[in-house]
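SAMPLE LOG
Freezer: B-3
Tube label: C17
Construct: single chain, 171 aa
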Amino acid sequence: LIVRRQHHFFTFNFIGMVSTICTLGFTTHVIPPDEFGSRGEILLNLLLTAVAFKFVFADSLPNIAYDTKLDVHINIGFAILSAICIENCGITYVKDESLRERIDYYLYTAIGGFWLFWHCIFGFAAWRCAPASYRLLRPLPILSQLVPAAHVEQVCGALQGDPWQPAAGGP
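STRUCTURE (predicted):
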């Protein structure tokens, strides 16, 4: 019996979707800064979508008392959308139009840079953790006493191969 974690479902359906929803918040930059209502409408819809997505996400995982990496990613996404909302509120108080445009550009660039940096850090952490999780899932040496040696060699050989391919003789 080979046990492997299949992270693809959570990677694409949760992390990918939250990233997409939060990245869409940057589309409000094409709306002029003085049209706060239009920007706010888009951002609040995205924020409500992210909150609803968090509830769907919470229902699909067991309840635990600590934040998982997925929770942290979703919370960072909320922080990004909130930062864009705060920026849009604050920029309306700048009266000089050229100064407002420049501040708007630099703040969107800073928030977008942080969002990109977060994805690089998150992706690097996931990439570094993947080999460790495969090592943790290897059979224990004591298995050789409980299971025939041929089966243990088959399982160990399968785990040393390509982790995305099913083991030979597996389902």
